[in-house]
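REQUEST ID: PR-0412
SUBMITTED BY: lab tech R.K.
PRIORITY: routine
TASK: structure prediction, single protein chain
INPUT:
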Amino acid sequence: MQEVEPGAGADPVGLSVKVSQVAYGLDPARAFRRRGLPVVSGATHVPRAPEIFLGRADCLGIGAFGTPAPDCAAGLVTDELNPEYRCDKADMAAMPLPRCDLHSKDRAIAGVVQTGRAGLSSAASAT
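STATUS: complete
OUTPUT:
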């Protein structure tokens, strides 16, 4: 966990919040939005409960963000950010390798792989 300073210079703000931590986790989003900074929220938790996140961020990334990320970045640059960006099925062969070197090594002791089943069909969920 890293302390977030709402007064720090940032533009835009990317925020990933677990559904179980949403009450506390969206406090920084509220603070940054009050300052007029665009907040993009995503990760695996948003598609599982999008109603929780609607209106609490300027933009939602639904699903793996690799494929819509360039469109979102362009929207930030032109000030034409869409309310949501949905990931199509990613072509893993065309995806760039993760930039793990960008993460602070003093704040985590292990990497995490997370999977889920967002978007199950009604037939699959009935079994």
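NOTES: Confidence is low (pLDDT under 50) at residues 117-127.
REVIEWED BY: pending
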